[in-house]
């Protein structure tokens, strides 16, 4: 499972700088989802990242692993990790 998570992160980190920026998140989302308004993707990213993520300039691999664990194991519908793969359909 760790190899899967790490591989997906590396696919998202297009410029290999060790951070998934909003631009990389956008690209990942729009290649997988039909989105009418890019603002939905931006809102998802902004709900996903923490203040610390923003200070660093994006999501590190360590943070992505943490978010993935929350995505899989946290039943709270308001957990930020629900946005890991993009906007949540209403």
What features would you highlight for this structure?
90 residues, mainly alpha, Recoverin, domain 1, 5 helices, 0% strand
Helix and strand sequence: HHHHH
Radius of gyration, in angstroms, nearest whole number: 12 Å
User: Which class in CATH terms?
Assistant: Mainly Alpha
User: What fraction of residues sit in β-strands?
Assistant: under 5%
Kindly name the structural category: mainly alpha
Assigned CATH architecture: Orthogonal Bundle
Q: Largest sheet, if any?
A: none
Overall form: globular
CATH topology: Recoverin, domain 1
N- and C-termini, Cα separation? 29 Å
How helix-rich are the residues, as a percent range? 55-70%
| Oligomerization | single chain
Q: If helices are DSSP runs of H or I spanning 4 or more residues, what is the number of helices?
A: 5
* Residue runs with pLDDT of under 50 for 5 or more positions: none
As for the number of domains, it is 1
Mean pLDDT: 94
User: Tally of extended strands?
Assistant: 0
InterPro entries: EF-hand-dom_pair, EF_Hand_1_Ca_BS
Protein name: EF-hand domain-containing protein
Keywords: Calcium
Question: Care to describe what's here?
Answer:
This protein is an all-alpha fold and 90 residues long. The protein has one domain: Orthogonal Bundle (Recoverin, domain 1), CATH 1.10.238. The protein is built from five helices and no strands. Helix 1 (2-12) crosses helix 5 and helix 2 crosses helix 3. The model has no long low-confidence stretch (mean pLDDT 94).
Summarize the SSE layout with pairings.
Blueprint: H1 2-12, H2 22-32, H3 38-48, H4 51-56, H5 61-73
Helix pairs in contact: 1-5, 2-3
């Amino acid at each position: 499972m760790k190899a899967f998570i790490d591989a997906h992160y590396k696919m998202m980190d297009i410029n290999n700088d060790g951070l998934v920026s909003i631009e990389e998140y956008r690209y990942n989302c729009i290649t997988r989802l039909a989105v009418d308004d890019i603002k939905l993707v931006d809102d998802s990213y902004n709900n996903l990242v923490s203040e610390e993520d923003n200070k660093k300039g994006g999501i590190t691999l360590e943070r992505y692993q943490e978010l993935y664990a929350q995505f899989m194991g946290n039943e709270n519908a308001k957990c930020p990790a629900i946005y890991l793969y993009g906007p949540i359909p209403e």
